[in-house]
Amino acid sequence: MDENAIRFMLFFGLWVLSPCLSQEYHVVNERKSWTEAQRYCREMYIDLVTINSTEDMDKVKQHLGSNTDEFWIGLFGDVNNWKWSLEKDGFYEKGQADLRLWNTGEPNNHDYNFLCVDTQPSSRWSDYMCNDKRPFVCYNDSPSNYSYVKNAMNWTDAQQYCRANYTDLASVRNVSENNAISQIIDQYAWIGMYKESWRWSDGQRLRMTSYSNWNVSQSVNVNNFCVTTKTTAWNIRPCSSTYPFICSRSPDIIKRQVVKLIVSKSGSSLDLEVNQDAILHQLSRSLQKHGLGEVKLKWRKQSDGKTFHLKKKEDTKKDRV
Question: 3-state DSSP helix/strand/coil percent for the chain, to nearest 5?
């Protein structure tokens, strides 16, 4: 994502919410698909409920009481969410963060919540369960070089080790860097790419360190699947299935404002819908620099499910008058 492109952007359909507020829960006993439930909650409240802690889950249980049905929550599968551990402004030139050098048949482990990437001496990548132990490759920013660590660790521990002793787990921006890594390893080794396969409706990621309450007896299928809860555990269900659902809102909101603005992008190849999370992250960081780090931002979807809509320059000029 080009920082300069973001810096001069005006954004369309952005919720601005006050921070750090307790959620108020509303159980809706109408059976809807996940998308229909999401639309209802956004129209009538704020969004489908987000559950970030045991305290949140306890509140949900209190609202459900003795009800044994399943209820949609805001969690849904996001199967293609591959990204790098190192997120540093200016580190990736255009397209470099999207480099993929998969081995034949990879990636193939779609049925896991979290997947990480290893490389091998043949220079090709594979996805694997992040809790498996492997050697790993760290990147050092100054001077720029790679270090191969033979002490096998799971991906999260390897990330912590690299951040403590170098810069981060290795990112691969081009074929030359990939070849340099393959020359220093002698077996499968972790690099910095990983995938968090679940996202909350309000934009938060379900990270490897986040609270979760999965039903351990079920298989984890991400593609086109959403999540329900009972008083006991979360279940993975087809998003088209119909269940009652739980909405949330913040009772102490000081101000909620919808900002409708014009988007300008510097390159025709930039897909705003695909990059909206990165844009929102950049916005939040800019607000932090101006002392507004506690403001919560989220996109407001239009009726067709999209955030951005293309407008002609003539229409844009009229809007500015």
Answer: 20, 30, 50
Shared domain check, 186 and 102:
yes
CB 122 within 8 A of CB 30: no
What number of CA atoms fall less than 13 Å from residue 107's CA on the CB side? 21
Q: The pTM is what?
A: 0.59
Q: Could you report the per-residue pLDDT of 38-96, keeping only the tens digit for each?
A: 999 999 999 999 999 999 999 999 999 999 999 999 999 877 778 899 988 889 999 99
61: its two tokens:
């249980």
Which amino acid is located at 78 in the chain? D
Residue ranges of alpha helices (H) inside 45-143 are: 54-64
**Cα 59 to Cα 293: distance, rounded to the nearest angstrom:** 27
CA distance 159 to 136: 9
pLDDT for residue 217: 85
The answer to whether the CB of 93 falls within 8 A of the CB of 177 is no
Bridge partners, 28 (sequence order):
245
Give whole-number Cα distances, 168 to 1, 98, 204, in Å: 19, 18, 23
Bridge partners (DSSP) of residue 169 are 138
What whole-number distance in Å separates Cα of residue 116 and Cα of residue 178? 17
User: What torsion, rounded to 10 degrees, do the Cα atoms 189, 210, 114, 141 define?
Assistant: -30
Same domain membership, residue 220 and residue 132:
no
Instruction: Give phi and psi for 249, each to the nearest 5.
Output: -155, 165
Instruction: Report the candidate in 124, 115, 119, 114 with the shortest Cα–Cα distance to residue 136.
Output: 119
Q: Is the pLDDT of residue 206 over 90?
A: no
The DSSP secondary-structure symbol of 203 reads S
User: Residue 225 sits in which domain range?
Assistant: 22-78+197-249
User: Residue ranges of the alpha helices (H) in 82-193?
Assistant: 155-165, 175-182
Are 91 and 159 in the same domain? yes
pLDDT in tens, 146-163: 999 999 999 999 999 999
